[in-house]
Write a structure and sequence with these properties.
Length: about 180
């Protein structure tokens, strides 16, 4: 099962992902954020770590998500990837000398590998919805927003369940039950 959880900043995405994953027993949490020298990011990472049970396995992987999921799939009932937006930012930086289209193609290919690698466990992807804000002023920010929108669409198409979070509340956009009944 693949679940995509979307929402804005501080909307409750990660908390919901953790609640869903906890139902599976053994959980692997794949964190994509690298703090570097940013004290705010270090504090954010520590806050996220404190929110997770000690029994959960944590993998810090900024780029190779499919490889991390593949290594974890046999031993986890659920895998949380938090978050696709930071991962796309990492990927964009890694491929900064390439065109926007090449970055999008690399993201799409990795997402396809990621979905296939989960093999029988509940894969929960967390991602930001950036398309509800004002149009960014810079071309780089607009290109990133557009790539993020495409990534979310691809993830939603592959997902069995899509949940949008607003003010800590889940809004179910796509459920496995409803989709199976429609076919």
């Amino acid at each position: 099962m693949l679940t995509l959880i979307l929402g804005g900043a501080r909307s409750g995405k990660s908390r919901l992902a953790q609640r869903l994953a906890a139902q599976a027993g053994r959980v692997t949490y794949i964190a994509t954020l690298q703090a570097g020298d940013d004290p705010e990011m270090v504090a954010r990472i520590e806050r996220h770590r404190a929110d997770r049970p000690d029994s959960w396995r944590t993998i810090e992987e900024p780029l190779a998500l499919a490889d991390a999921v593949e290594r974890s799939a046999n031993e986890a009932g659920a895998i949380v990837v938090d978050c696709l937006t930071i991962w796309l930012s990492n990927l964009s930086w890694q491929y900064r000398d390439r065109t926007a289209r090449q970055v999008e193609d690399a993201a799409r290919a990795e997402l396809q590998r990621l979905a296939a690698a989960a093999r029988g466990c509940h894969l929960i992807l967390v991602s930001n919805e950036l398309g509800c804000a004002t149009v960014p002023e810079s071309a780089v920010a607009r290109a990133f927003r557009d790539a993020q929108g495409l990534l979310n669409q691809w993830a939603a198409a592959a997902a069995d369940e899509v949940i949008f979070t607003v003010a800590g509340l889940p809004l179910y956009l796509k459920t496995a039950r409803r989709e199976a009944g429609a076919q």
